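Bug #77: duplicate submission created two jobs. Keeping one. Sequence:
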Amino acid sequence: MRSVGETYEDTLVALAKKFGYSETHIRKAVTEYNDAKAAADEANRD
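Kept job's structure:
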């Protein structure tokens, strides 16, 4: 969604509506994904 110029907040609202979760739930899921990806990227650098 970033590639089409939507803001982070607009994307949160759209995802919350699409999947029926709260914006807070979506925000936490994104944070958890980003943390896991960063950890995996760090582990694969070695």
